Structures are given as structure tokens and as C-alpha cells.
Amino acid sequence: MPHKHLFARLFLTACTATYALAGHAASSYPDRPIRLIVTSSPGSGLDAMARTISGDMGTALKQSIVVENKAGAAGIVGTREIVAATPDGYTVGLVSSNHAVNPSLNKSLPYDSVKDITPITVLGTVPLVLAVPAKSPYKTVQELVAAAKKEPNTLNYGTSGNGSALHLAALLLESKADIDMMHVPYKGGSALVTDLISGQIDAAFLAIPTAYAQVKAGSIKALGVSSTKRLDLLPETPTLIEAGIAGYEYVPWIGLIGPAGLDKNVTDLLYKTALDVLALPKIKESFKAQGLTPEGSTSDVFQKIIKNDIDLNAKLIKQAGIEPS
Predict the structure, then answer these.
(1) Could you tell me the pTM of the whole model?
(2) pLDDT tens-digit series, residues 6-43
(3) What is the DSSP letter of 158?
(4) Nearest Cα to Cα of residue 255 among 206, 191, 304, 319
(5) CA torsion sign, 315 to 317 to 320 to 325?
């Protein structure tokens, strides 16, 4: 039946043309400006990182990178726009580790946090510091843990709210150390820091920029850091693992993503460009000033981080009895 063979040839020709066109588009990328959607408001840590790297990445790619803030719902608003974009590399975005928390805090999301994105790279991490007031009787993590074990639910810790990174870090400490403390959620970080300094709360996890400033001022004591390596800003402060909390690691991150189906060549180019920019001395200094640790993970590694964090956060949120809304 000749028409069947003709159809097959036409179909093959069409497929070949489509793949050739896609290959050409990837090889000529980028030939116009790139949108970088930031899933938080201007002035946030996410926004600061975007504006730190966008100029140098644009220079390397020989195209301008236009930063657009799409804030709302803990990053859901902006992420929804990223995943809905054409997967051609001309719309990418920055998300925080909230991306791996939102599936557990929301009954339904307008996207799948794994299937609907292409992870490109983790740009940086934001280690946390377990701190106590300067006048606290606890000088080490083990002293704090011992006191919490002696009188369960007597010591308290402050956070920036239910399901926040500071809360999840504390929940992981409770789980790993087998202790129970009282949770005091705050609506904002400033009130939390004020009450920690004054001794109204016994302990709190703080992001490194905030913690560093208060440690230097002598207002609080840093007992341990949430990363697996000590921090350059607080070299004398042990990791929580070193302080006796086996297997402890909770480090919020900021990552670059695109919509699902992003061409591998485009993904690789953006990853390698980001890696080169992260290696620049001025970027390293800028990150250090912001309390960020440069990373530069591969797409595959980033995907594993997202999946692992989604699972970990789900367990911690269930443990805390937090119901999704």
C-alpha cells in the first residue's frame, strides 16, 4: 500500500525537521534577553542574589538578564509562572528551599514541585546558627540538650512561624536529639531576635547574617551551625554534628530552575555559566557579605536535593502536627 509508505516518509521527514529546528534553537541560545523570575519581593535575600549574579551571567551569555519579582504565597505565585513558561531557556527563575516545603503545607499546588520543573543548579546555601541569649546558662549544644531532656517542654525556642526554615531546623534538632521543647512562633524576624537577646526565649535558629551581627555585638552566643562544615564567618562555632547531634544537617538553599522539558544543552549552558560566575572573587565576597555559601550543584544533584528535602520536610511537618491549608 504505497500511501502507507508515503505517510511514513512524510512523518519521518516532519520529525527530522522538528528535531533539527529544536537543535538549532538550542545551539543558537541565547539570541534574545532572558527573564529571571524571582519568587520573592524586592529587597529579599532571593532578590539580592538575583541582582548579584544576573549581570555577570548576562555578560557571559552575551545577553541581558531581566530580573522580575513575582512574590506571593511563599514562592508559589512566581513558581507557577516559571513552570507555565515555554521550555526554551528564555524564562528561568530563582526559588528558595520553600519550594521543598510547600508540598507539605498546601493541600494542593498549581504544579508538581518535581515533575513540572527542570532543576538547573543550587546557587547558594544559607546555613543557620543555633543561638542562645548572651546571659544564657547554656554554653554548648549538649548543655542545652541535657536541660531539655531533664525537663521536657520547659525550655522554649522561637521561630519566624510554623513551617518556616527556622522552625523545621528546630524540629530536626528535637528529632535527632530526642528532646521536646516549646515552640514560640513569631510573625517576623525582628521581634524574634529582640526576644532572644532579652532572654524572653531560650534558643532559636537564625540565618547566618543575623546571627553573625548579634554574635559580634555580644548580644547572643552561637552554639552550633546547621551545615556539615564550619562557617568562615564563625570559625570557632562547631557544626551540630561536631557538637554531638549525629546526622544533623538542615541548610536552606537558593536554586535556579526552569520549566519541565528544558533542553539539556540549554540546562548545561546555564549551569556552567552559573558555575563560572560563582567562582568570581567579587561574587564570592558578595555572597560572604550576604551570609551565603556558593554551591553550583549539577542538575541531577539539585533534583536529588529537592526530592530529599520534600521527604524530610514532610516528616518534620507531620511530626509537628501541622495541618496543610
Answers:
(1) 0.89
(2) 444 544 444 444 444 444 456 799 999 999 999 999 99
(3) E
(4) 304
(5) negative
